[in-house]
């Protein structure tokens, strides 16, 4: 089937469920969108009331994208507590309803847990007391390095209750990456666990944390959750979370926080330098996470919602914890991986817990598609209503498989484009309101004003059937506020290239109907299995190895991961390339950054294509990695054009 056939075939909207009209239909969308951009104050004044305020806001929007004065504030004079919004306000109406269903890594060893809103309240208060006793107070930073266990949610919400700022580090990151983040935000406490079971294997989180802490201040305390109970080391800075929680009080008054007080920092990769600490607010972020969760997934009370992400990524923050819990939903927290114990795990969990909305990444869909439809068909998926996709463009083949094999043609697919920086969905179809197009993120969410710019001139490209870089014209409440302690970097990164606009870093196309298609990053960021990787980070890890003189890293198309990591490596004089060295470098990058950064292909490069001024011509390296030499472009400006022939002849990606 051609892409065209796939598109035609799939453009039939999923059957509408008449028993339950969507929150927003096509007419509502048009009307509400117009209001959201024409009168943002009125629109967001109303939406701001989705959450409970201790002191109601008077001012709604006070934002500027002006060069040199980027300043973003929403609901700035209101006060609230995010944890009270996610827990306390539900206690009266749904205290006994399940808030979190925890699904363990190995279903044959452990049973799922059902944590009610009352239980959640108890545990979060206890954890807040434990953190307070360790000296954490309002505004302090707490790093969370945990498996996908309920304590991760308790820790997030306990920080929010105190008014402390959490910074989660994905449990797949290495000790070095963890240490850099602990130091980066000057955390007082790091919360970890003994081990993290995943896919039947165990990552030694506590020992990783010990290693990380060798490079941190002595005063940093370590709160350790028992997950597996296996042996770990124990030092003076360590505190036993389970024991402390057992004796802690189950009462903790939520702090009144300003709407603009930071809720969390999340480190993310960019095109240059080390990862930056993206800072999200309390008020605007929560309003946006709650609203998008309800409307984009057409979440209705009583539904069971499952986002398969890890809380180490922004998707887990907004759509496992904050959005769903603010809405009083039942949210699933999954510790495992899609293929363990077998390739039917996702569908087994969907059937077991009668999941209504299921949200995952194209890389997982492609991997499961490869395992065959029988793994899906074994399980009863009749409760599914809406399917979601996030992290990278979804190819039409994967879209159709998701639609037909998983959704049985009855579940609209929402292809949600957004970023760590945006806090919540930016471009997405809405179930029941949008005629779906496989592979397109389609239309802006309320308040989001996308513009397509000509990449070099920065001119706005009007009209349909156009392509360029994706920028956003005005602020929305979920937007990041700054880079942690580096507002200048914030302005430079996101507002430096195109004055007056937020620059996403992505290219996009606006088709003849005005629908948006994301064409991928236009900077030196690659997207590996829906995870963002700065090529500069992998390069700096490689050159930190004693035998490596120089390196250039690019992405290349990968069947399952979307993009793979292709590294060109120039060795130090006198070092010989070998398969052992290749292995050694792979292990090296894993330990420097984490398994997700491991290069898929390493090519020995006696020389890299450079201009006479010494700039590496990545365009050429990308083409070679893509196995496409027809369009290498002009190589005459290279200092030594012959290096290109050597790279082509020795490429790793032969078709
Ligand atoms: C980058 C952001 C917050 C989502 C998880 C990743 C790419 C994300 C889509 C989509 C096409 C997408 C973009 C974006 N991306 N969703 N639906 N269609 N591309 O968050 O790590 O901050 O990465 O992921 O390139 O810039 P992230």
Automatic annotation (TrEMBL):
Cofactor needs: Mg(2+)
Residues covered by the AMP-dependent synthetase/ligase domain: 88-475
Any single GO BP term: acetyl-CoA biosynthetic process from acetate
SUPFAM superfamilies the record matches: Acetyl-CoA synthetase-like (SSF56801)
Binding-site list for ATP: 391-393, 415-420, 506, 521, 532
Domain spans labelled Acetyl-coenzyme A synthetase N-terminal: 29-86
Positions bearing N6-acetyllysine: 615
Binding site for Mg(2+): 543, 545, 548
Ranges where the AMP-binding enzyme C-terminal domain occurs: 537-615
Organism domain of life: Bacteria
Entry's EC annotation: 6.2.1.1
GO CC terms, sorted: cytosol
Post-translational modification summary for this protein: Acetylated. Deacetylation by the SIR2-homolog deacetylase activates the enzyme.
GO MF term (any one): ATP binding
Pfam families associated with the record: ACAS_N (PF16177), AMP-binding (PF00501), AMP-binding_C (PF13193)
Catalytic activity: acetate + ATP + CoA = acetyl-CoA + AMP + diphosphate
Transmembrane portions of the chain: none
Residues annotated for CoA binding in this entry: 198-201, 315, 529, 590
InterPro entries the record matches: Ac_CoA_lig, ACAS_N, AMP-bd_C, AMP-bd_C_sf, AMP-binding_CS, AMP-dep_synth/lig_dom, ANL_N_sf
CDD domains hit by this protein: ACS (cd05966)
Segments of this protein annotated with the region Disordered: 1-24
Family: Belongs to the ATP-dependent AMP-binding enzyme family.
NCBIfam families xrefs: Ac_CoA_lig_AcsA, PRK00174.1
Record-given protein name: Acetyl-coenzyme A synthetase
């Amino acid at each position: 089937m051609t892409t065209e056939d796939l598109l035609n075939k799939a453009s039939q909207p999923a059957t509408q469920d008449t028993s339950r009209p969507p929150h927003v239909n096509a007419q509502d969308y048009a009307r509400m969108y117009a209001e959201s951009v024409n009168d943002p104050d009125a629109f967001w004044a109303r939406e701001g009331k989705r959450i409970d305020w201790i002191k109601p806001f008077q001012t709604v929007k006070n934002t500027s994208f002006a060069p040199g004065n980027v300043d973003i504030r929403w609901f700035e004079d209101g006060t609230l507590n995010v944890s009270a919004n996610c827990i306390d306000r539900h206690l009266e109406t749904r205290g006994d309803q399940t808030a979190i269903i925890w699904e363990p890594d190995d279903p044959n060893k452990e049973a799922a847990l059902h944590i009610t809103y009352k239980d959640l309240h108890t545990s979060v208060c206890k954890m807040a007391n434990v953190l307070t006793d360790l000296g954490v107070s309002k505004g302090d930073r707490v790093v969370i390095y945990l498996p996908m266990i309920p304590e991760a949610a308790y820790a997030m919400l306990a920080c929010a209750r105190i008014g402390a700022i959490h910074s989660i580090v994905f449990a797949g990151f290495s000790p070095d990456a963890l240490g850099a983040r602990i130091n980066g935000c000057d955390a007082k406490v790091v919360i970890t666990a003994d081990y993290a079971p995943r896919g039947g294997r165990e990552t030694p989180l506590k020992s990783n944390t010990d290693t990380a802490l060798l490079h941190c201040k002595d005063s940093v305390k370590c709160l350790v959750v028992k997950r597996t109970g296996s042996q770990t080391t124990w030092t003076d800075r360590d505190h036993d979370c389970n024991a402390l929680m057992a004796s802690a009080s189950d009462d903790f008054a939520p702090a009144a926080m300003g709407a603009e007080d930071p809720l969390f920092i999340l480190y993310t990769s960019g095109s240059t330098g080390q990862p930056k600490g993206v800072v999200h607010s309390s008020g605007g972020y929560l309003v946006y996470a709650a609203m998008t969760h309800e409307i984009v997934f057409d979440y209705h009370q009583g539904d069971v919602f499952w986002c398969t992400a890890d809380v180490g990524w922004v998707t887990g923050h907004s759509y496992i914890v904050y959005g769903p819990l603010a809405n009083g939903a039942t949210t699933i927290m999954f510790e495992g991986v899609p293929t363990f114990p077998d390739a039917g795990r996702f569908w087994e969990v969907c059937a077991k817990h009668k999941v209504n909305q299921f949200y995952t990444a194209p890389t997982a869909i492609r991997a499961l598609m490869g395992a065959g439809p029988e793994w899906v068909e074994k399980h009863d998926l009749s409760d599914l209503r809406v399917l979601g996709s996030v992290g990278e463009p979804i190819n039409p083949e994967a879209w159709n498989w998701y639609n037909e094999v998983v959704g049985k043609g009855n579940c609209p697919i929402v292809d949600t484009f957004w970023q760590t920086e945006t806090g919540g969905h930016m471009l997405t179809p809405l179930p029941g309101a949008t005629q779906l197009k496989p592979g397109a993120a389609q239309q802006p969410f309320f308040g989001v004003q996308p513009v397509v710019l000509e990449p070099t001139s920065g001119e706005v490209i009007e009209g349909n059937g156009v392509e360029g870089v994706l920028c956003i014209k005005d602020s929305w409440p979920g937007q990041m506020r700054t880079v942690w302690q580096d507002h200048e970097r914030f302005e430079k990164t996101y507002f430096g290239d195109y004055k007056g606009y937020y620059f996403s870093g992505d290219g996009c196309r606006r088709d003849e109907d005005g629908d948006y298609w994301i064409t991928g990053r236009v900077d030196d960021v690659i997207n590996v299995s829906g995870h963002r990787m700065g090529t500069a980070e992998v390069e700096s890890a490689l050159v930190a190895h004693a035998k490596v003189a120089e390196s250039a890293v690019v992405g290349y198309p990968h069947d399952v991961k979307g993009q793979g990591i292709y590294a060109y490596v120039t060795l130090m004089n006198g070092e010989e390339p070998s398969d052992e060295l290749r292995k050694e470098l792979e292990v090296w990058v894993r330990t420097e950054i984490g398994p997700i950064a491991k290069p898929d292909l390493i090519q020995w490069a006696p020389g890299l294509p450079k201009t006479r001024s010494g700039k590496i011509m990545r365009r050429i390296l990308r083409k070679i990695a893509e196995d496409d030499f027809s369009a290498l472009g002009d190589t005459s400006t290279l200092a030594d054009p012959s290096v290109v022939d050597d790279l082509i002849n020795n490429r790793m990606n032969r078709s």
